[in-house]
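Hey, resending since the last one bounced:
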Amino acid sequence: MRVLSSLVKKKFLSLLKEAHNNKKLSFHGELRPLTNQGLWTRFLKPLYRKKWVVYVKPPFGGAEQVLKYLARYTHRVAFPTSDFSRLRTGMSASNGRTTETVTANEP
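The structure tokens again:
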């Protein structure tokens, strides 16, 4: 686990520095001084010295369940509202579970 913690820390801090260098971070209020490169470097220094803990546990339903979960968020497709006017929803039961179905209405 120590190796993973080290890798996560290096990658996270590297991407954070890159975002700061490319002006992709916004600082407001008391944090506004962190836009200064010197103050930003001083702010990050203790984070490199800290021991990071990465908590990892096996997925509940196995790798396939994890992929299904992630697919719901990573493969979203946008449809125009007009497309939905031709659809109707209904409820159906399969394997004792209730699922929602969407079917196309006849034009």
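The two ends are 58 Å apart (CA to CA).

Sorry for the duplicate.
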